[in-house]
Amino acid sequence: MGIASITPGLLTTRAEMDQLFGGGNQGGILPSTKTPNILIYVDHDSGKEYGYEDGWLAEEDEFGPIFEYTGQGTSGDQTFLGTKGSRNAAVLYHAETGRSLRVFVAEGKVPGSSSSAKQQRYIGEFALDPNLPYTVREAHGKDQVQRRIIVFRLRPKGAFERLPKDAVTRAETTTADRVLATVAEPRMDEPKRVATKRKLVSESRRAAQPSVIAEHRQSDLRDAYLKELTGQGHEVFAFQIKIAGTTTTLTTDLYDATTNELYSVRGESSREEVRAAVGQLKDYVRHLRPRPPKLVTLLPEKPQDDLANLLHTEGIDLVFRDGSDYMRSAAK
Q: Residue 54 belongs to what domain range?
């Protein structure tokens, strides 16, 4: 069986794919040292055991469908670093290393086999979404302790199979669950590891998205302000929102429970970023119960007066950094 015969919908086994591509047959992410491929195995049953669900999102954008896949690691925070995070890093940097992501879904036991080995259904070749390669969420681990998980966003390349049973389940009701404030930190530890590779990814991003510099400033500002608030004794966390009838999961920026304030943290004080903050806050606040929070935008420096007025007109307070201090301009 040659690579040309591997088409979406093919039923095969891990052993056969190991012979064809290499990579071994144990684990969910298997980078091959024989061929330029990374094999990704999805098992819907085992995912639910750890509080997550992999599969196709119901929502598409102008660039097509998205398949979500949760990274390696069954307990503790998932990472891109060290031995524990090496397979997650392999997926993150697959394009830079010239590897294809080939995704398989478990499909019942192998016919006639006395072992527990499952058939694997090939659904296609994928690549990470160049705009948003992954998101970070909170879920319980093997030990039932809440931890941060990496959720990769995969885009199909060429032919693919998309069956209803491989879709993420739509939420029955809208929920807003409290999660650690650090879940709002999207970059985790990967840019500290390979900044130059991150730059390569950034060069392919759409012009409408914030730059990598802005993303770093956003992360640094969030971290610093979180430290500021907790240093004052405030209770700070974030919300993970699932919206009824969709497969969408949203994660807010900082929420100060002590003052009942919801923050949108932006990496630039530009018009584009201020507009984004307004939309984000207005979207999120609809789903928070029972007491609607005060809305606040946190910026790295003072914006133009017109942009401060835009926030105030929408009833949103402005907080901006001034040297080592934080200045507040309240909406009237």
A: 1-167
With H, G, I as helix, E, B as strand and everything else as coil, classify residue 249: strand
Taking each helix axis from N to C terminus, what angle separates 305-313 and 271-285, rounded to the nearest 10 degrees?
10
CATH of the domain at 146: 2.30.280.10
Q: Is the pLDDT of residue 143 over 70?
A: yes
In the structure, what pLDDT confidence band is assigned to residue 231 with cuts at 50, 70 and 90? very high
Question: What is each CA distance from 67 to 136, 156, 286, in whole angstroms?
Answer: 15, 8, 27
The 10 Å Cβ neighbour count of residue 264 is 25
In this model, does residue 49 exceed pLDDT 50?
yes
Same structural domain for residues 232 and 133? no
Final residue of a domain: which of 167, 186, 217? 167
* Beta-carbon-side half-sphere exposure of residue 57 (alpha carbons within 13 Å): 21
Separation of CA 184 from chain center? 10
Instruction: Please say whether the dihedral angle defined by the alpha carbons of residues 108, 112, 116 and 122, taken in this order, is positive or negative.
Output: negative
For 161-181, the three-class secondary structure string (H helix, E strand, C coil) is CCCHHHECCCCCCCEEEEECH
> Of 145, 167, 189, at which residue does a domain stop?
167
What are the pLDDT digits (tens) for 79-98?
A: 999 999 999 999 999 999 99
Classify 15 as helix, strand or coil.
Answer: helix
Distance CA 264, CA 295 (A): 8
